[in-house]
TrEMBL record:
UniProt keyword Calcium, yes or no: yes
Listed EC numbers: 1.11.1.7
Positions annotated to bind Ca(2+) 1: D70, V73, G75, D77, S79, E91
Keyword terms of this UniProt record: Calcium, Disulfide bond, Glycoprotein, Heme, Hydrogen peroxide, Iron, Metal-binding, Oxidoreductase, Peroxidase, Pyrrolidone carboxylic acid, Secreted
GO cellular component: extracellular region
InterPro entries: Haem_peroxidase, Haem_peroxidase_sf, Peroxidase_pln, Peroxidases_AS, Peroxidases_heam-ligand_BS, Secretory_peroxidase
Protein name: Peroxidase
Domain Plant heme peroxidase family profile: 28-332
Binding-site positions, heme b: H197
Organism field: Panicum miliaceum
Superkingdom: Eukaryota
Annotated SUPFAM superfamilies: Heme-dependent peroxidases
Function: Removal of H(2)O(2), oxidation of toxic reductants, biosynthesis and degradation of lignin, suberization, auxin catabolism, response to environmental stresses such as wounding, pathogen attack and oxidative stress.
């Protein structure tokens, strides 16, 4: 799901907020979290996504990717939405995200509608998760799943974290499995979630390494179909090593706007766009999963829905951690930097919960 922009950075990985493996998917999320707090929350997000999709069906791929890029950097905390400031370059402006990451205006529209109904109640992180789910439903012919909610918004967003945590389109199988394992996801989860590459577009810079000067023995990566390579070279021509920076192409040649199993069929026919796509066939265990999904779209869809929920729980902030951001692009005024945070306090009466937000001095 690392589609689009380019050659990702390496470097040391930021240590996760939680422990290892399953422990990183923190407790505290619940399906129907806003049923009493803000009953219209999920419907308002759905309306914003549907309106954007009607105008441009490609936004579905963008919103699915936005959720992935949020969760893989500091967990699913909405930090990918925060704008760069004079003193900090945020995640959204890291090389893996800029200029390819999109969908921010859809999140803004949903947040604006929700704030008008339920002020200071619904986190930006949850809106991103809901928007991804609604995008899956629209692009996947009503493929849907329930989203546990209750995420809180983070206050830190740095380009370095994005570069150090997001998988690269140049990754090999070992690197991909390691990247996902560090987030508490399995090798099969990685193959399943890679299926999101069946929708969306990619910039030339993410795959031209396979088209020009691949090795001393071959100018073109031999694992890519020669006909496909010819097509891609016509879309992304070489001109003294300079490629048209804004040129994009579909990730999936067959059904580029539909979330289906054609991505895996493409891999089986050497039509994977990225090095990291075709790498799924270089490992016997990963290839077994690819072959399974070539044969059964329904099995992939079932596993994809479960993997999206699992991914959406990575290193989440819950309870009184973080904040409920009022503007998804900016941390709350007077929060961590000023020693004040918006803290949620919950009182229970039977099965009902009422929430209050109070300013708590932290200094």
């Amino acid at each position: 799901m690392e589609e689009e922009e380019g050659r990702r950075g390496g470097g040391e990985r930021r240590e996760p907020k939680g422990g290892g493996g399953e422990g990183r998917r923190a407790a505290g999320l619940k399906v129907g979290f806003y049923n009493k707090r803000c009953p219209s929350a999920e419907a308002l997000v759905q309306q914003a996504v549907a309106a954007a999709f009607k105008n441009n069906s490609g936004i579905a791929a963008g919103l699915i990717r936005l959720h992935f890029h949020d969760c893989f950097v500091r967990g699913c905390d909405g930090s990918v939405l925060i704008d760069t400031t004079a003193n900090n370059t945020a995640e959204k402006d890291a090389v893996p995200n800029n200029p390819s990451l999109r969908g921010f205006e859809v999140i803004d529209a949903a947040k604006k509608a929700i704030e008008a109904r339920c002020p200071r109640t619904v986190s930006c992180a949850d809106i991103v998760a809901f928007a991804a789910r609604d995008s899956v439903a629209l692009a996947g012919n009503n493929l849907t799943y329930k989203v546990p909610a209750g995420r809180r918004d983070g206050r830190i967003s740095t380009a370095a974290d994005a570069s150090n945590n997001l998988p690269s389109p140049l990754s090999n199988a070992t690197e991909l499995v390691g990247n996902f394992t560090r987030k508490g996801l399995t090798a099969e989860d990685m193959v399943v979630l890679s299926g999101a590459h069946t929708v969306g577009r990619s910039h030339c810079s993410s795959f031209t390494n396979r088209l020009y000067g691949f090795s001393n023995a071959s100018d073109v990566d031999p694992t890519i179909s020669s006909a496909y390579a010819f097509l891609l070279r016509s879309i992304c021509p070489s001109n003294s090593g300079q490629f048209v920076p804004n040129t994009t192409t579909d990730m999936d040649l067959m059904t580029p706007a539909v979330l289906d199993n054609k991505y895996y069929l493409g891999l089986a026919n050497n039509l994977g766009l990225f090095t990291s796509d075709q790498a799924l066939l270089t490992n016997a265990t990963l290839k077994k999963s690819v072959d399974e999904f070539v044969k059964s779209e329904s099995r992939w869809k079932s596993k994809f829905a479960k993997a999206m929920v699992k991914m959406g729980s990575i290193e989440v902030l819950t309870g009184t951690q973080g904040e409920i951001r009022l503007n998804c692009r900016v941390i709350n005024s007077g929060s961590s930097a000023a020693g004040i945070e918006l803290q949620m306090t919950t009182t229970s009466s039977g099965d009902d919960s009422a929430e209050q937000f109070t300013k708590i001095a932290t200094k």
